[in-house]
Structures are given as C-alpha cells and as structure tokens.
Amino acid sequence: MTGTQVLDDELSASPIEVRGPLQSTRSPKDGEPEDLFAERLLEWQKNRIQRQMKGEYRSQVYRLNELIGGNLSTPLRISEIQIQGANNTRPGFLARVVKPHLTNPDPCEDPTLESVLHQTRQITYALARTDLFKNIVPELQTPKDPLASIHDVDIVFKCEERGRLSLKSATEVGNGDATASANAKVRNAFGGAEDLEGSVSFGTKTRHTYRLALSAPLTGTMLTRGELSAYAVDNDYHAWASCKEGLKGVKAAVSTITALGQHEVSYQAVLRHIHSLKDEASLSTRQSAGTTLKSSLNYTFVHDTRDDAIMGHRGAYLKFNSELAGLGGDSSFAKVEGESQISRRLLKGLHASLAGRAGLLYSLDNRPSIFSDRFKLGGPMNVRSFRYNSIGPRDHGDAVGGDAYWAVGLSLIGDLPGKAHWPLKPHVYVNAGKLDNIDRGRTTIIRAAEQTGISTIGLGRTGINISV
Amino acid sequence: MSVPMPKPLQRFYSLFPLRIYDEPFSLPTTTSTSPFASGTGPAHPTLFIHPPSDPTKSLLSTDVECVKWQAYLALRGVSKSINIRWDLSPEGAIDQRLPNLYLPVKQMQNVKAEMKGELLESSRIPSWVDGELGQNRAPRGEDEDDHILEGYVDEDARDESRAWVMLLETDIDAALRATSTNRDSFLKRLITFPSPMVPERPLLTKPYTGLSSMITPFGSAVIITPILERYAEALKALSLRLGGSRWFLGSRGPTALDSVAFAYLHSALESLYPEIREEARKWVNLVAWEQRVRESISASLHH
Known about the structure:
The structure holds two protein chains of two kinds.
Chain A: H1 3-13, H2 39-69, E1 77-84, H3 91-98, H4 113-129, E2 133-141, E3 152-161, E4 165-174, E5 177-187, E6 195-203, E7 206-217, E8 224-236, H5 238-241, E9 244-257, E10 262-275, H6 283-288, E11 290-304, E12 316-329, E13 333-347, E14 350-363, E15 394-395, E16 398-399, E17 404-414, E18 425-436, H7 444-451, E19 461-467
Parallel strand pairs in A: 1-3
Antiparallel strand pairs in A: 2-3, 4-5, 5-6, 6-7, 7-8, 8-9, 9-10, 10-11, 11-12, 12-13, 13-14, 14-17, 15-16, 17-18, 18-19
Chain B: H1 7-13, E1 46-48, H2 64-75, E2 83-85, E3 100-103, E4 118-121, H3 125-135, H4 144-148, H5 155-178, H6 186-191, E5 205-206, E6 221-222, H7 225-242, H8 256-269, H9 274-281, H10 284-301
C-alpha cells in the first residue's frame, strides 16, 4: 500500500467538513450569545463595558478614598485659586464671594488636606449661591508658581455660566382675572450677579402693569440683596368701587435672610390716581378721585418652615408687615398687618389647614384715611364666597374700604378615594371676617378691639369646593 | 347661565344670614372746607369748587367756572345756606368738571327718607335754585314776569345777554387761559398722570414739538398778541355797555349775565399776568362794579 493510498483511506474514513469563505470561527466564552447579530449581543457587550468601567471607577474611587483618608492630616496650603469660565463676571465680585472662605477656621493649627477640602466645598457652595453658574467642578492641581513649596496646591474651579438673557411669556386665568404677560431678564447684567428684569402684563382686572427692577447682592454671602424698582399699574375697580386706580411708583429695598426668616426694609414713593369714575359712582368714591402721593417706610418679615403650603406635615407660615407713611406726600398713617397659616395631616389623605390674618390702619393726622391706603376684604384669596373686596363699609354699592379687619379660615383638603395621585382634591372650608372703620372718639386699643371683635356671626361663610 | 343652588345647601346657608347694616350717610369732615360754614352735617347743601387762593381772605375760587356759580348762588340769595368745600378733585366731579352741588339727605318729618344725597352738575344748579326759591319766598324785587324774562328788562335785553355771555366766554376766556401759568415741565408730565380735562386751547397756538417729532407733542407756544387785542376790545365794549348802571343791561336786579361778567372780571383783576390785569384796571366803571359786587358776594359767602 502506498502513501497515497493510505491518505485516501484516511480521508474516506473521516470525512472533513469543507466550509466556504467567511464562515464563523468563533468559540464563544463568558456566556457570549451564539447569534452574532442579535440585539442581545449588542446589549451584552454594552453591559460588559459598563461593568468594566464601573469596576474601574469603583477601584479608582476606592484608591482615591484610601489616598485621601490616609493623608487628611498631611500639611497642605492653598497657594492660588482660579475660577475658569466666568468670562462675564467681574473678578472683584468673585473675590468678594471667595474671600470669606480663605481664612483658616482654626488659626492654632496649620492647614491640612482636610481643611483644604472643606474650604473647597464651601467655595463651591458660595459660587453656586450666586446662581451664575450651571456647572462648577473643583480640581486640586499642582501649583504653577515656581516658588511654591511642596505643601502648596492650586484649586481650580471650572465653571460654566448660565445664559444671561431669558425671555418668558405666560397667560394665566384664575381668581376672576385673566392676564397675559411677558418677562425679560438679564442675569449678571454688570458682572456682579445683578439681575435686570422688565415685565409687562395685561389683564381684565389689572389692566396693565409695567415693571423694571434692578437687584444686586450686597454681601459676598449672597444672603443680603438690594433692589431698585419702578412700576406703573392700572387696576380696574369698576366691579366693586366704580373707579380705576393708576399707580406709578419707585421702590428701594434691602432684604436679608437670617435664621429667623426673611426680612425686608424698603422705602416706597407712589403716586395713586383714582380716575375713570362710573356715572353712578358714590360720593365717597368721588371724594377719593384725583391724585395722592404716598411716601412710606416698610418692614416685612416672613417665616416659612412649611414643607407644603396646602397639605403640609410640619412647619408654619408667619408674615408680619408694618408701614409708616408721612415722609412727605398726602398719606400719613401707621399700618400693621399679620398673617399666619398652619397645615397638618389629620388622617391618611386628609389635611387640615388653619389660616388667620388681621390688620390695623391708624391715621397720624386728623384726616380720614385715603381710599388707596385702606384695607379691602373679600374674595377667594381671603374670605371665600364673598365678592371681591365686597366686605365692609359701603356707600351706594361702592366698597370704600376700612381701617381694621380680621379674617380666619379653616379648610379640610383630602384625596379622592382611590385616587390619591390625582391633582383633583375635594375641599371643605369655613371662612369668616370683618372689615370696619376706627372710631377715633375712643382710645385706640379699646376701639380697635371692639370694632374688630366677634360680632360677625353671620358674616361668615362655608362652602364646599373641588379644587385642583 | 346660572345654576340654582340645591335646597339642602340653601337651608344650610340660611343658618348664616347675611346682614347689611345701613348707616346714615354723612360727608366725612376734612380741613378743606370754609371756616365760616354753618355746619358740615347732612342738613346743608355743599358746593364743591376749585380751591381759593387764600381761604382766610376770600372764598372765591381761582377757577372762573366756579366763581360764576358762586356768584350766581350769592346773587340769587341762596348761598347763605350752602357750605363751600374744595376737597373734591375735578376727576371726582360729574363730567369731571367743577363745581358740583351736593344735596343732603332730605329728612322728612317722622319719616326716614330713602333718598340719599345727590350730586348735581353745574347745569342743574339753576333748576335747583328755582325750586328752592319757589318753595320758600320769591326774592325781593322779582315778580312772575321777571322770572320769565330771567330778570332782564325785556326780551331784547334777554337776547342781548346771550351775546354778551358768548363774548365773555370766548374772547376774555381765551385771554385768561392763554396767560394762565399752569405749565407743567416735561419731567412733571412724565411722572404724573394726564389730566382728564384738557382745557380748550386758544386759537393760534402751536406745540413745542414738531408733528414729525418722536416726542409726543406737549406744551403750547401761544401767539398771544391777537388774543390780547381781542381781549382789550371785549373789555372796552363791556365797559361802554355797563356805563354807570347798577347791573348790566339796565336790569333792576342781578341776572345770570352779571354772574358771568363778575366771574371774568374778578379773574382778570386777580390774574398774575400783568397785561391782563392792567388792561382790566383801565376801565374804572368795571373795577368799581366788580368791587361792589364782590363785597356783596363775599358777605353772602361768609355767612
């Protein structure tokens, strides 16, 4: 038997499968799916890459934590701070924001890596409070200064600024009023986190409103802001007072936030113009017509710790406002107003809310108070089920306002059975209130207490409402 | 379309009746009232005018239209029962024009009247005065014929009075308005509200800004010379017609023309514009007549 014959015999005994070109030569491992083109394969590949990256990330983070944790007490000092990407912000403003955080919190001890990391975090928060940046990434880098020591480090904040110009338009319908408005805002107008805002709105009750305001932070902590604004408003009071009121005013305010709450002190000068009287306007409304000037100082305090305004579980709302007018102008009065609201859960899906407000206006000269300064009461925002501003003294159907008032409201709001996720909620409420004038013939405290006392049974209203 | 309230809800709401307390209305007191008023209570009519320049000296308003009606009420003998107040802005007046006459609640004996106070525009004042005088007694020196002739001696005089009133309310009124010093600055116009009552512009005026200007036309560069010429001619004619008579057109008693003439003469003599004042003072009989009538009216107003 020759070699060729042996080979032929071997070939015929074990037939070899002959494949054409481009046949698969894969030997799948690690659970790799058989089908090359299945979506499962692509998904498997993606998941494997993510697992690898996650694993690498975890190991890097672990190593970094080990590195940092083991070196927190390493002496380290900030040699330079750079803020990159803040092209529209003044360096002086940024320095004012950053500087308070550069002092060593413990002067007795030398700075360490731990203190540098704390300072980095505080500076990041401070920059975020300016509301100028949508992204802030801090980095610790080797100092570029050739004279820097080995214990020095540069902190570089890589920032991405927000857009400076925003335009917004809106239409709103509610509370018996329909408005269309447009708003334009220039953020960081002059490089120091100043906001320049202008707005225009037109509506059914508030005929038109124009407002221009410039606000700016007064401190590096951004907690105190100043604002200058000018506005012009034209309100339509034909439905309840047979007149219109135009307002043109300027306001200068300083507001700050403390542990107690928000405080605002402001000065306001406003021209009020009662005009466009209806033919059937009462004499009281006619006597209020014309132009008056009010120049006043105002203090407002707001303390709001509620987790939700309507269906809250904790906290309360308190607002106090006091105004002193008479620094020139036609109005001379002292006015105080307080408002409070609390909401608690009674049962699962049922909340109770109790709100109260009161106000007192005392004229400092012997003249009667002016219509524009008096309180008005009634409507969905204070005493529901009463026509807007319809409570209190009237003259021939025109509401003339009052010098003192109180109003309380108790509400129950709950979820529809089985539909807790719906925004539609049943609402049961009880409201009561009174608005009256002050009899100046008696002492202030007694007459104020008596004239706003509980003689209003019958002026209360109850109602059932479905609200969204 | 209103939806009727369900009866159970009506019964529930009836537990909380709504009461409206109806208080007797009275005008709130202010300092912008005549110091010689006999009372500011609801029993007296009140005439709302533009403020006088110095209330301690004279209650005559600085506005010609208000002076007209003050003179009319005084000369007809009803001003002693009327209070004068100037705390009502023109924008609160009927048709945004002063004066307005406020009539108090009429309290009839043993009956609390349903009617509240009513505010009358100036055009309704004569009919109110006629009603007041007709209820009480006829003023002295007048009879029924005088009432038809409105106090003039004959129909020709009554018709002539219309022409004189027209002369006063055009030529002399134009001169007074053209020379009034009530010119607001551009800044003041920017921060204040526009006055609803635009005074009639005299003829031959042009604004400070051009028609093609981007700035809204404001102000008035008045061409004063022809206005003053017509004013002088009107005063001359008035003086010649008055002569030495006690009242215009030879009437036995004061008439509506006398009220109008007094108002314009008084405003001209009190004007801050020298040419207006000096031109009026040239006519001795007019000055004497104005002084006599003013004393009579002031005595009535300071009752």
